[in-house]
Specification:
The complex is a heterodimer of chains A (248) and B (311). Chain A has 248 residues and is α+β, with helices and mostly antiparallel strands. Chain A has a single domain (62-242), classed as 5'-Nucleotidase, C-terminal domain (5'-nucleotidase,  domain 2). Helix content of chain A is 35%, strand content 25%. Chain A contains 7 helices and 13 strands. In chain A, the strands form 4 sheets. Chain A has a 4-stranded mixed beta sheet. Chain A has a 4-stranded mixed beta sheet with strand order 11-10-9-13. With 311 residues, chain B is of the alpha/beta class. Chain B has one domain: 4-Layer Sandwich (Purple Acid Phosphatase, chain A, domain 2), CATH 3.60.21. In chain B, the strands form 3 sheets. Chain B has a 6-stranded mixed beta sheet with strand order 5-6-8-9-11-10, with helices on one face. In chain B, strands 3-2-1-12 form a 4-stranded mixed beta sheet, covered by helices on one side. The longest helix of chain B has 15 residues, at 197-211. Chain B is globular and about 55 Å long. The chains are: A alpha+beta (248), B alpha/beta (311). Chains A and B meet through helix 1, strand 1, helix 2 and helix 4 of A and helix 2, helix 3, helix 4, helix 5 and helix 6 of B.
Chain lengths: 248, 311
């Protein structure tokens, strides 16, 4: 590429005056390095995190339960979500000592993609539910509940307890609660996290509804439920039960 | 003949450069194009240790100590390296429940991150906690241009953008993050004002390009890669952007097979990349730069993309 020297000189002066905007990215080579435990480690970073890790391991390594099989996070319905929402639903009834019609967990509230089969540690439950969210109740009419179910349908399906529904065109169809079709004027007692009840995940229809709360943490509900299962001689387990399905 | 590195090291002034003449400089540039290596993470979510060996699909993956070692190795091999993160540093393991982000920020400081943006979960232990952790332990800026923190504990704890100089290159980096309402609990998001990320991103990029003469402009984004509805995302930002060369994304925990190229509003190439979550992957993007030679390049700006072999 030959250039006129006079032009180059002019160009160069422009470059000196402006000083900048002189380079442009022309090509990109990419690579994704998978990081794993067998690779060499930086000793100073290991030293830095060790005191934190030692104390985390001390308080988090207790085995609290046993998973019979690997539970997976999945939409519209998955075993991990069903286990968690069943835990919340059961513990809500017990801790609030009341009838609860339906229970929900937002899909994004499942913070692991998998709960592997085998021993489950205290730390694993913290990873599954790291937030200090509260388990709360709300009473709402069927028409408001239907709005929430439509949101759940539009978002591809969340773990639910006490109801079955189908997703069609981002709406909840054929909703059955306690074996009966949803009734728009009936008042239902619903269980949720305070995160969702406060309008999280765009559940704006729940914002104005008063929350019944006793400060019970959702994570504690998981620990209590696993304990309860144990006392009944049961392990951690769940099935897909067509609670939420896509309509044909 | 002087190569560029020696040239810079001798601190040659513009006057001296003129005596030596442009042809020498141009020749030097011609024979050794400038390279910049960008390393990046997103949504590391307090994953200090590798995933435990419990039979899960991610077992043994991740871990800050192995990441730090790899980063150090690349820094020894490459002259110009940037290390960036796209937010959600906090929340996900008991480390965060117990220490509220202190070991996460300390580890990033030890790895010499150049900049990060803010993710929704970085609010999880409160804005005051985030401000404290950054003030005490960070040696890198948190960049966000579309949150107004006036009157909150995070006021003046972030910057809209930062110019990072690597040899002759001026790299402008800024951050954008996601709408807090409906995602971050009101009591945590507080009085933070969320501003239009596309508008603020274009404002920042234009400023970095035209007023700050940056050679490359990088957006650290916690908007998320793409959505089924029309919610603003990296994909939408890329298409509606001007002057941004690269979006390093996060939030949707998307593992890209390769970076994705879009055409911006002017028809120029813009690259988007994201590396999943939990520090399972460290992304590497090696850019090569050529000189403008003073005239406006004809046509649109294209960037050729290929997979790096070896290394």
């Amino acid at each position: 590429m030959r250039k006129n020297p006079a032009f180059s000189l002019v160009a160069f002066f422009i470059f000196i005056v402006s000083c900048h905007t002189a380079y442009q990215a022309q090509s990109l080579q990419y690579k994704a390095y998978r990081i794993n435990d067998s690779q060499q480690k930086d000793s100073s970073v290991l030293m830095l995190i060790k005191p934190y890790g030692d104390s985390v391991n001390k308080s988090m390594s207790d085995v609290v339960g046993f998973a019979e099989k690997t539970l997976d996070k999945k939409q519209p319905e998955g075993t991990l979500g069903n286990f968690m929402v069943d835990a919340f639903f059961a513990m809500a009834k017990e801790k609030y000592n009341t009838q609860v019609d339906v229970g929900f967990l937002n899909f994004g509230g499942i913070r692991l993609t998998q709960l592997p089969a085998g021993n489950v540690t205290r730390g694993k439950i913290f990873e599954l539910m790291p937030f200090d969210n509260l388990l709360i109740l709300q009473k709402m009419k069927g028409d408001v509940l239907q709005q929430l179910l439509d949101l759940i349908a539009a978002k591809g399906g969340w773990p639910v307890a006490g109801l079955t529904m189908q997703i069609r065109n981002k709406k909840a169809m054929n909703v059955m609660i306690g074996g009966k079709p949803i009734d728009m004027s009936t008042i239902y007692t619903t269980m949720n996290s305070d995160f969702i009840a406060n309008g999280g995940d765009n559940a704006d229809m729940l914002r104005p509804i008063p929350q019944i709360t006793n400060g019970y943490l959702m994570r504690d509900a998981l620990f209590d439920y696993i304990k309860k299962l144990k006392s009944e001689g049961k392990n951690i387990s769940a099935k897909e039960e067509n609670r939420v399905t896509h309509a044909e | 003949m002087l190569n560029r590195k020696q040239f810079i090291k001798r601190g040659v002034s513009a006057a001296r450069a003129m005596i030596i003449g442009p042809t020498v400089m141009e020749a030097a540039d011609y024979f050794s194009p400038l390279r910049l290596t960008i390393l990046h993470t997103n949504d590391t979510h307090s994953r200090m240790d590798p995933f435990p060996m419990d039979g899960g699909r991610n077992q043994g993956l991740g871990g800050v100590a192995a990441r730090a070692q790899l980063i150090e190795k690349i820094r020894q091999e490459e002259e110009h390296v940037l290390l960036l993160d796209a937010g959600d540093i906090f929340q996900g393991t008991p480390y965060f429940n117990l220490y509220k982000g202190e070991p996460e920020i300390k580890a990033m400081a030890a790895m010499n991150y150049d900049a990060c943006t803010i993710g929704n979960h970085d609010f999880d232990a409160g804005m005051e906690n985030l401000a404290t952790q950054l003030t005490r332990h960070a040696n890198f800026p948190m960049l966000v241009t579309n949150y107004d923190f006036a009157g909150t504990p995070m006021e003046q704890k972030t910057q809209p953008y930062k110019i990072l100089k690597k040899g002759k290159l001026r790299i402008g980096v800024f951050g954008v993050s996601i709408e807090g309402r409906g995602l971050i609990p009101d009591n945590l998001f507080g009085a933070t004002k969320y501003l239009d990320p596309v508008q603020k991103a274009n404002e920042a990029a234009n400023k970095l390009k035209k007023d700050e003469y940056c050679d490359m402009i990088i957006c650290l984004s916690h908007l998320g890669y793409q959505y089924k509805d029309n919610k603003v995302s990296d994909e939408i930002l890329a298409k509606e952007s001007e002057n941004i060369d690269l979006i390093i994304g996060g939030h949707t925990h998307t593992f890209f097979d390769s970076p994705v190229t879009y055409k911006n509003r002017k028809g120029d190439d813009i690259i988007v990349n994201q590396v999943g979550w939990a520090g399972i992957v460290l992304g590497r993007l090696d850019f090569e730069f050529t000189k403008f030679s003073g005239k406006k390049l004809a046509g649109n700006h294209n960037i050729s993309v290929s997979q790096k072999t070896g290394g």
